């Protein structure tokens, strides 16, 4: 195992909640109901694809021009970026900083495969940018999660084979992306949801991100 490739929202920090609040604001402003259950479908999905899903959910997908859709997506992002200004280094999920330290000490490469265009700013706010040897810009890849592209790009940039990587995700789209990339998938979340998506190992929370456990499970899977 030579590299660990992280998702950001919902794995490193709880920005998933802020995405939810910003989308709810936007959806309600155009008369569309928006709840947490529907929000689950947007996790790991790009900004424009999320908007398309919301408009379809509201039955109004054909009522907006491309320019109007871009404006709606911008409005959501402005609200989200405004929420992000509150972010502090303490907002990192428990155990993540310690895990990054452990990886660094063991010379394991670290990459980020987030669908978020705001990812570099979030890493800066959390003061963890320096741990990452690569942060893939989602614009660099043709297809978003659940396609494997972003995880494959991270491996390519780290100059490692996918089979030498562990990917960590909280979304079902992200777990599918990791598996289709040919990597070992760690899901953070509920066992049922993560197993159904194909996770090789499920952790209830980020406190359980411990290198020895991951290495053990990774090598069991190889044999
Ligand atoms: P932005 P991840 C994803 O990040 C989020 O899960 C998803 O809800 C969001 O729409 C997407 O990033 C795009 O984010 O609007 O900031 O570019 O989970 O892949 O780290
Ligand atoms: Mg996520």
List the helices and strands and how they pair.
Elements: E1 3-6, H1 15-29, H2 36-39, H3 47-57, H4 66-84, H5 96-105, E2 109-112, H6 119-126, E3 134-135, H7 149-158, E4 165-169, H8 172-180, E5 184-188, H9 191-197, E6 201-203, H10 211-222
Parallel strand pairs: 1-2, 1-4, 2-3, 4-5, 5-6
Helix pairs in contact: 1-4, 3-4, 8-9
Bound molecules: 1,6-di-O-phosphono-beta-D-glucopyranose and magnesium ion.
Magnesium ion binds at residues 7, 9-11, 43-44, 170-171, 174.
Protein model, in words:
It is built from ten helices and six strands. It has 223 residues and is an alpha/beta fold. A six-stranded parallel β-sheet has the order 3-2-1-4-5-6, sandwiched between helices. The radius of gyration is 17 Å and the shape is globular. The model has no long low-confidence stretch (mean pLDDT 96). The structure holds 1,6-di-O-phosphono-beta-D-glucopyranose (B16) and magnesium ion (MG). Magnesium ion (MG) binds at residues 7, 9-11, 43-44, 170-171, 174. 1,6-di-O-phosphono-beta-D-glucopyranose binds at residues 7-10, 19, 42-47, 50, 77, 114-118, 171.
Structural key phrases:
alpha/beta; Rossmann fold; DNA polymerase, domain 1; 10% strand; binds 1,6-di-O-phosphono-beta-D-glucopyranose; binds magnesium ion
Q: Compute the gyration radius: what is it?
A: 17 Å
- Give unreliable regions as ranges: none
User: From N to C, what is the helix and strand string?
Assistant: EHHHHHEHEHEHEHEH
Annotation field: number of helices: 10
How would you state the average pLDDT, rounded? 96
Q: CATH topology of the largest domain, which one? A: Rossmann fold
- How many discrete structural domains? 2
Strand order across the biggest sheet?
A: 3-2-1-4-5-6
Q: Overall 3D geometry?
A: globular
**Total count of strands:** 6
